[in-house]
Design a protein that fits this description.
This protein has 316 residues and is an alpha/beta fold. The protein has eight helices and 13 strands.
């Protein structure tokens, strides 16, 4: 049994929640309730439906409801506890269906971030990146692929141990989309004081983090379990989602995750003052995600209280 000691990284716990528009949350919730039905849970910029992703997307498209960004990781068709393995062609067709639903529901300047692993393709390949099969199967414009590398992974004796997954960064309109580079610059610069013609060569906020990201996976196991670990078997690390949200969305915008799982996307979104909508088909994962969100809110308010106390003491 995992015993997480902290539910989220400090950068998300300490993100200030001034200027949240509760009005937008209430209005969005009212629209969804009246047109689609009651969510499994809704509070403080976090709305979760216990339903099938494609069915929910059909309903959104029927009412012309707009999403600003979708960040998700679907089942990979590899036999995890939440999926049944199907023929790879059927899998690709299934993905086409929900990706088309996401494209229709996305706002004109919106984005889609798709996380994918790898699987076997019979008589063709062993660790075939799923992105090779899916990258052009929606109407989104592919901006780029980001490689997410991590230290832990499966072991291998007759090939290199796979230690990366892909993120496909898509936009609806390649001429106009959100990219807040200054919010996600990497301060780890080798020669920060180097100048050319009297001016610093590097932005004082840091460098562009590039397209290979090193974030540890959420791990399991005695003495090595990640602090944010839940019982969900395929949880995203919050730090990855934080970077995507800060770069590709703005405060108060709507972030969607159709395969919400333990709601990592939801926790990071609500923690960074975006409005989260998620769908998850498995009710046990929905319960687990709501518990996780409540713990996160408790931890965040403790963090805020402690910080204001420290400010008071510093000010004396
Ligand atoms: C790869 S996991 C996502 C994990 C998530 N990113 C997290 O951080 O916890 C995929 C999730 O999709 C859910 N799922 C599978 N089919 C679904 C469907 N048709 N509609 C909604 N959710 C589905 C599974 O139950 C599983 O929790």
């Amino acid at each position: 049994m995992h015993k997480p000691t902290s539910v989220a990284p400090v950068s998300i716990l300490s993100h200030n929640d001034h200027n949240i528009s509760y009005d937008k949350f209430e209005k969005t919730l009212d629209t969804l309730k009246s047109k689609i039905g009651m969510p499994f849970f809704a509070s403080d910029n976090f709305i979760l439906y216990n339903t099938d992703a494609e069915k929910f997307l059909d309903s959104l498209n029927n009412i012309n409801f707009e999403l600003d960004i979708t960040i998700t990781s679907p089942p990979y068709n590899i036999g995890k506890e939440y999926e049944e393995i199907i023929d790879n062609n059927d899998y690709v067709n299934w993905c086409k269906g929900w990706m088309s639903g996401i494209h229709s529901a996305t706002s004109q300047n919106g984005a889609f971030w798709l996380n994918l692993g790898y699987f076997d393709v019979v008589n063709k390949g062993k660790c075939v990146p799923i992105s090779y099969l899916l990258w052009d199967k929606s109407d989104f414009y592919l901006q780029q692929e980001v490689v997410w590398m991590y230290e832990a992974g499966v072991t291998a004796k007759k090939r290199f141990a796979p230690r990366n997954e892909k993120w496909l960064f898509y936009v609806k309109n390649p001429l106009e989309y959100t990219f807040n580079l200054d919010s996600i610059r990497d301060p780890n610069v080798k020669y920060p004081n180097q100048k050319k013609n009297g001016k610093f060569r590097c932005n004082p906020l840091g460098k562009n983090p590039g397209d290979v990201w090193n974030f540890p996976k959420v791990t399991t196991g005695t003495n090595r379990s990640s602090k944010e670990r839940t019982e969900h078997p395929a949880q995203f690390p919050l730090k990855v989602i934080e970077r995507i949200i800060l770069a590709c969305s703005n405060t108060d915008e709507i972030v969607f995750d159709p395969f919400a799982g333990s709601c990592s996307t939801g926790i990071a979104s609500a923690g960074l003052n975006r409005l989260f909508i998620g769908t998850e088909i498995n009710i046990d994962y929905c319960k687990l995600a709501v518990d996780r969100f409540k713990k996160f809110k408790d931890e965040k308010s403790k963090y805020t209280q402690q910080s204001s106390l420290l400010h008071l003491i510093d000010g004396e």
